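Lay summary. Proteins are chains of building blocks that fold into shapes, and those shapes determine what they do. In this project we predict the shape from the chain. Here is one chain we studied, written as its sequence of building blocks.
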Amino acid sequence: MAVKIEDDAEAMSDINVTPLVDVMLVLLIIFMVTTPLLHQGVEVSLPKSVSQNLPKTPEDPLILSITRKEVYYLNETPVPKAQLRDRIKLILKNRRDKAVYLKADRNLPYGVVVETMDTLNRIGVESLGMVTELKSEKGP
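And here is the predicted shape, written in a compact code that computers can read:
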């Protein structure tokens, strides 16, 4: 479709932003729908609790996860148990916040959790947070 511009008519120099706005709105809707569906972290069945959440910190938290099969993860990276002390020491050396959040599976033996907490204490972790799920009002 050709547009004929007459000699005495001025050419329009405005940019048509309608297609740009349409594309941006579609992208916004796509991101709003897909963001809650993203799954982050290691799958762990957490114990239930009614405690309050800890305050947010400006640094990304260091999360130590232990699965039912006693596989250790630092954030989302698997770490052999033998290397756990050295890896945490190395990470905490470069951080101002010496806090670790522990996500232990609810079916994990109690001794494994206590042993891990003792290891973290000996390494020099200043603050240890236990990650739990919110307990429902109806359940026991």
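What the prediction tells us: Helices lie at 18-34, 84-93, 110-123.
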